[in-house]
Amino acid sequence: MVSNVGVIGAGQMGAGIAQVCAAIGKKVILCDIKQEFVDKGIQTITRNLERSVSKERIDETDMKNTLGNVNTTLELSDLSNCDIIIEAIVENMDIKKKLFSDLGHICNDNTILASNTSSIPIGILAKASGRSEKVVGMHFMNPVPVMKLVEVIRAKSTSDLTFDTTFNLAKDLSKVPVLVNDFPGFVSNRILLPMLNEAMFCVMEGVAEPKAIDTVMKLGMSHPMGPLTLADFIGLDTCLAIMEVLHRDFNDDKYRPCPLLKEMVEQGKLGKKSGEGFYKY
Ligand SMILES: NC(=O)c1ccc[n+]([C@@H]2O[C@H](COP(=O)([O-])OP(=O)(O)OC[C@H]3O[C@@H](n4cnc5c(N)ncnc54)[C@H](O)[C@@H]3O)[C@@H](O)[C@H]2O)c1
Q1: Whose CA is nearest to atom 29 of ligand 1?
Q2: What is the pTM of this model?
Q3: CATH number of the domain within which 200 lies
Q4: What's the half-sphere exposure (Cβ side, CA atoms, 13 Å) at 208?
Q5: Is the CB of 72 inside a 6 Å radius of any atom of ligand 1?
Q6: How many domains does the chain have?
Q7: Are 169 and 224 in the same domain?
Q8: Given the CA of residue 34, which atom of ligand 1 is nearest to it?
Q9: Choice from 72, 118, 124, 152 to test ligand 1 binding pocket (greatest atom count within 8 A of CB)
């Protein structure tokens, strides 16, 4: 039974994960590397909850209770007694490996270490932690409060107890957990990201303007959102990081990141979060 949840990374995913856990009464500690990032996470949660109150999905008391369940910290050691820690930091293998190694030292023996990584094999993070049976993937979709799916990724080393606890937590959050085995990009991003990458090649080669490409996929394929809008929402840095993992780990050029994507990330055009990507925000 999970009572205390640690969430590391207070960005768009971490804030959403903290919010949904706090909303069902879990005690959440949200951790980031700078106070301004933690503050931004709390602002995101507050804004989301205010919107839900205005739409009469929840009332003021629910909002107050949810916010009251979230504490913040800059110290990893404050998470040492959590039942589960859900990591949602930047999509960078070396940084995540270092974090899992630190968590392996800091946390009590029963703490489950879950990663919200979009693409990095869970087995690699499990090995880095030194407690591989306690490591699992818990891949939420963006925006977390809205999207139903959670891929629960079982590495070869993940114990039954770790897997079952994580799977049940996702159910308690009113999500639909799906068991996925440990391959780069899992199911969601192995299928989605090559499509977004191909849409970027279409822009680069002048096949059509971004808005036209998005319109084709929305009206022609009944996608709720065009691929370039979606890429902007995910974050172009995250999209590039995922394509690099797929390209490297499958060693197959069909996954090569679009040069335009690389160029935009180098220019700091990261999508919605930086104010500009394929569109301006
Ligand atoms: N954006 C999406 O649509 C999406 C969807 C599913 C999964 N993910 C995954 O979730 C993770 C986070 O993505 P995001 O979009 O929220 O990114 P983001 O850039 O919005 O937030 C990342 C946060 O992590 C913090 N951080 C970085 N290093 C840290 C460390 N060592 N310790 C503590 N905090 C640290 C940063 O300060 C930042 O606040 C990534 O692994 C990403 O692949 C993203």
Answers
A1: 89
A2: 0.94
A3: 1.10.1040.10
A4: 11
A5: no
A6: 2
A7: no
A8: 37
A9: 118
Q: Are residues 194 and 155 in the same domain?
A: no
User: Does 30 share its domain with 126?
Assistant: yes
**2 phi, psi to nearest 5 deg:** -95, 125
Domain that holds residue 114: 4-181
Which one of 115, 116, 129, 139 is the catalytic residue? 139
Q: Last residue of a domain, which of 126, 150, 181? A: 181
| Same domain flag for 150 and 232 | no
Question: Contact 73/79 with Cβ under 8 angstroms?
Answer: yes
**244 with 125, same domain?**
no
CB of residue 87 inside a 6 A radius of ligand 1: no
Any idea what the Cα angle at residue 97 is, between residues 81 and 236, rounded to 5°? 110
Task: Please tell me the distance from the alpha carbon of residue 140 to that of residue 234, in angstroms, as a whole number.
Answer: 12
Q: Please indicate, yes or no, whether residues 147 and 200 belong to a single structural domain of this protein.
A: no
Full pLDDT tens readout for the chain, 281 residues = 899 999 999 999 999 999 999 999 999 999 999 999 999 999 999 999 999 999 999 999 999 999 999 999 999 999 999 999 999 999 999 999 999 999 999 999 999 999 999 999 999 999 999 999 999 999 999 999 999 999 999 999 999 999 999 999 999 999 999 999 999 999 999 999 999 999 999 999 999 999 999 999 999 999 999 999 999 999 999 999 999 999 999 999 999 999 999 999 999 999 999 999 999 99
